[in-house]
Every structure is written in structure tokens, then in C-alpha cells.
Design goal:
The chain has two domains: 94 residues, Glutaredoxin (3-Layer(aba) Sandwich), CATH 3.40.30.10; 249 residues, Rossmann fold (3-Layer(aba) Sandwich), CATH 3.40.50. Strand 1, helix 3 and strand 2 form a beta-alpha-beta unit. It is extended and about 110 Å long. It has a seven-stranded mixed beta sheet with strand order 6-5-7-8-17-16-14, covered by helices on one side. A four-stranded mixed beta sheet has the order 2-1-3-4, with helices on one face. It is 32% helix and 18% strand. By secondary structure, the chain is α/β, with parallel strands linked by helices.
């Protein structure tokens, strides 16, 4: 077929138009790629994507966050920091990152206390914090601390064999105390026999399973703290209350005799029947969205005895097949109502709330203040903050020995956040690192070695030899 000049010109024009359209489309796509991005994380446990906990923290931050990385001209280090911060910037675009070579600004480095290459200075709403490890867990915890405008002071009573927030024994709360500090709270131990005063700036007072009796004066100090509207977390245990019965009466609660047991825990691989299981939770801000089972070794059941001015609600309830065993927990055990034992479901944790009482004489002083002519009506004062108390009949569930079981750690953190009035941070679990190790049996390792070092090369050689023979026969 002969192509005329006219057809030839048309074909050239079509090719030119196609080329121009193709270049235009590619240019538009390139421009769109600078404005929008799409990323996919197919790694195990989404290691390169921010966890839901980090997203919740970023959602609670109002306003920009400035991060300055004091890192030398080390390309690998700066890329590592940039990659980590970019994950946060994709969720919160107003996070800025600047790099500063510490060798060029020694005065600023000394002023800020920079001590490591790659150390970050995070600034938010006039507050700042230094961070030496740019990991997601460390960075999220630092942002959470900065988001809390007020300092949190968690006071642990000591001097009566209580569980220590810094101790490393199985009985102690050392690991839980470390998590509390990572969340931005300050820990303080107070012995009322030595310092007969609970600090005024106490956010939460924590009584952790005493093993010796409190003196009447110490109990009175704790009672006054509660009467004045202080927040309290009381971790009890089965048996003697060690002088704290007046406190229980003040709260309108009673510790039932015996230990909560569940003889069917063997179905879950637990041989000890004193492990109480809580699988379902009541509707409360502490457990909103919390669906993980929690375990309570050797817990005491609680019941409400009367109205003491608090709104009292159950927080933790065991399964229906549990009961309070008043006899020795050994051999074959069974429920015996004749001995006063209570059948499940049993409440092992209560929450108590009320409007925080006003200081004595505050209202009278306001009424007695003389009014001047022409004074404008004053705005009514805000409602007093809420007093919050949690009483749980078990302290083992937060101990070093059992903190890692099921959802114990995250529930404990939720309780502390709620007591500290940090409701926006409830149900932000502690960030855990996925197991990245691969353990193979000797047989599996040998099979992989033989497959890749022997069988695969022989297969490739055989295929090549077969193709060579086929071509030679042609």
C-alpha cells in the first residue's frame, strides 16, 4: 500500500500529538507524586508503620511540634532519624524536623545538655524534652509527656512492707513503676511514720498491698486525704487489712473473706486455681475499647456496704464459675455455701467518684467578702474536678512476676491515667517490639542448606544442559 504525503503528514501529526499528550500526562503524574504519596507496609507486625498508640497520642496534640536533631554530618544517622520522624509527619504534618551539627554550636549544646550524637530536642507549647533514642516507643512516650500540661506525682506509701515501685523482686512493682515514669509521671515514696504528711501536689496516692499494720495516726492521715478529695489507688490482698479497715468503711466497701478461686482455669493451661480471670469489662472510661483478658493471682472479692457520698461502680468482675474459697487451697476444692463462701461472678475491683469537696470555709469567705458599688457580676466558678478512687482486691497482677500476663500492664496504665485525669491517654498500650528472631531446627537448617547449595545449582545446571542438547539436535 502506497502512503501519500497527506497520509504521511497525518501520521506524523498523530505521533506528535500522542508524544505531547504522553509527556503532559507523565508531567502531571510527576507533579501529583510531589503532592500526594501512597505507602504500603507489608512487614511483620507493620514494623515501619506507626502503631495505633502513637496515632492516638498525635491526635491529642494540638498545634505544631518542633524537633531539632543535633547530629553530625553522618548520612546514615541522619537518614535513620529522618525515616523515623517521617512516619510521624505523615500522621501530623505540622511536625517539623531540623538538623544541627553540634560541632558548629557548642554553646547551644552545653545549654541544652546535649550529650549524644543524634540527640533530639522536642519542643511543644513552650515545653521541651531531650531524647537520645529516636525509637517509636521512646518518641511516643516523650510526646505523651509533653502533651500533659501539668506534672503528675504518684505517691507510694511505704514502711509497712508495701510493694516497691523501684524494687526488682517478683513481689514488687519495679517494672510497672518504670512504665509510669516513661509516661511522664514522677514517683515518690512516703513513709507517714517519718513524714506525717501527704504532699499537696499528689496526683494519685497508691497503697500497694501492705504486710504490716498501719498506725491509727497514719490511717487518719490517709482518711483526711480522701476526705479532702484526693485520688487513690488501693491494691489489697486476701486476709488482714493491716489496720486499713477504717479506710474501707470510709469508702463504703468490704473485703470478703477467702481467696477467689476458679477450678476450671486448667482449661487455659493454668494449674493454680487461685488465678482469677476477667474476660469481660463493665462500661467505664478505663476499659473503653479494652478487650484483652487480665489475670489476678490470689485476689480478694469486694462488696459495697453503704453510701458514703461516692458513686460506686464495679470495674472488674470474675467469671460465674469462680467462688471465694475460705479453706486451704490445696487438693480438690469445691464451693461450700455452708462455710459462707460466695459464688461468682465476684467483683474484685470498684471505682468510686464524686465531685471534689471544696476547702472548708471557701464558700463562707466568698459570701462574706464585701461588695463594692458598681461591681460587675462575676462568672460562676467552674465545677470542682472529680475525685477518683479505684480499689482492687489484688496487687499481684501489677507485680514484676505477673505484669506481662495478658493485658495486665495496659489495664494498670489505663487506671493510672484515669486517676490522673488524663482520660485522653486511656487505652494507649505500651509499645512492644515484635519478635524478629527466626529459630530453625537442625533438620530445617540442613534442608535449606542442601536446597540452596546443592539442589538449586544442580537444577540450574541440568536445565542448561538439557537446553544445550535440544539446540544441538537442531
Amino acid at each position: 500500500m502506497k502512503i501519500s504525503r497527506k497520509i504521511h503528514r497525518q501520521i506524523r501529526l498523530q505521533n506528535l500529538i500522542f508524544s505531547l499528550l504522553f509527556v503532559t500526562v507523565m508531567g502531571l503524574l510527576a507533579w501529583l507524586s510531589t503532592r500526594y504519596s501512597a505507602q504500603f507496609d507489608w512487614t511483620a507486625a507493620s514494623r515501619h508503620t506507626l502503631s495505633e498508640a502513637s496515632r492516638k497520642v498525635l491526635g491529642a496534640l494540638e498545634g505544631p511540634v518542633k524537633i531539632t536533631a543535633y547530629a553530625r554530618e553522618n548520612k546514615a544517622l541522619r537518614e535513620q532519624i529522618s525515616d523515623q520522624i517521617n512516619r510521624y509527619q505523615r500522621v501530623k504534618p505540622d511536625i517539623s524536623l531540623d538538623f544541627v551539627n553540634p560541632d558548629t554550636k557548642p554553646d547551644k549544646v552545653r545549654e541544652l545538655g546535649i550529650s549524644a550524637d543524634g540527640e533530639l530536642v522536642i519542643e511543644y507549647q513552650g515545653r521541651s524534652e531531650n531524647l537520645q533514642e529516636p525509637t517509636e516507643s521512646a518518641l511516643t512516650n516523650a510526646l505523651q509527656r509533653l502533651a500533659s500540661a501539668r506534672e503528675q506525682h504518684v505517691v507510694f506509701l511505704e514502711g509497712h512492707g508495701e510493694r516497691s515501685p523501684t524494687g526488682q523482686a517478683d513481689y514488687d512493682l519495679g517494672q510497672f513503676g518504670s512504665e509510669i515514669k516513661r509516661k511522664g509521671a514522677n514517683l515518690l515514696n512516703v513513709n507517714l511514720a517519718v513524714t506525717p504528711r501527704i504532699p499537696d501536689n499528689t496526683s494519685v496516692l497508691l497503697i500497694a498491698s501492705p504486710r504490716a499494720n498501719y498506725l491509727p495516726g497514719e490511717v487518719a492521715l490517709v482518711g483526711d486525704y480522701v476526705k479532702q478529695g484526693g485520688n487513690l489507688l488501693w491494691l489489697g490482698d486476701p486476709g488482714d487489712l493491716h489496720g486499713l479497715k477504717p479506710l474501707a468503711d470510709q469508702l463504703g466497701l468490704k473485703f470478703l473473706p477467702g481467696t477467689v478461686v476458679d477450678a476450671t482455669t486448667q482449661l487455659f493451661g493454668i494449674d493454680d486455681p487461685t488465678f482469677a480471670i476477667v474476660a469481660e469489662y463493665s462500661a467505664h472510661p478505663i476499659t473503653r475499647g479494652f478487650q484483652t483478658m487480665t489475670l489476678y493471682p490470689a485476689a480478694a472479692a469486694l462488696e459495697k456496704t453503704g453510701d458514703r457520698g461516692f458513686e460506686t461502680a464495679p470495674l472488674l468482675s470474675t467469671l460465674a464459675r469462680s467462688w471465694t474459697e475460705t479453706g486451704p487451697v490445696e487438693g480438690k476444692i469445691k464451693f461450700d455455701a455452708d462455710k459462707g463462701e460466695r459464688e461468682g461472678p465476684l467483683t474484685i475491683g470498684f471505682v468510686l467518684t464524686r465531685d471534689r469537696p471544696r476547702p472548708a470555709g471557701e464558700d463562707e469567705a466568698a459570701k462574706a467578702a464585701p461588695k463594692q458599688a458598681g461591681d460587675l457580676p462575676k462568672k460562676a466558678p467552674d465545677a470542682p474536678p472529680q475525685q477518683r478512687i479505684v480499689v482492687i482486691g489484688d496487687g499481684d497482677f501489677l507485680s514484676n512476676a505477673y505484669l506481662g500476663n495478658a493485658g495486665n500492664l495496659n489495664l494498670g496504665l489505663n487506671i493510672l491515667q484515669w486517676l490522673s485525669q488524663n482520660d485522653q491517654f486511656i487505652n494507649i498500650p505500651a509499645k512492644t517490639t515484635a519478635d524478629q528472631t527466626l529459630e530453625l531446627s537442625p533438620l530445617a537448617s540442613g534442608s535449606i542448606a542442601v536446597g540452596f547449595l546443592v539442589l538449586l545449582p544442580l537444577t540450574l545446571i541440568g536445565a542448561g544442559f538439557f537446553i544445550w542438547l535440544q539446540r544441538r539436535k537442531r
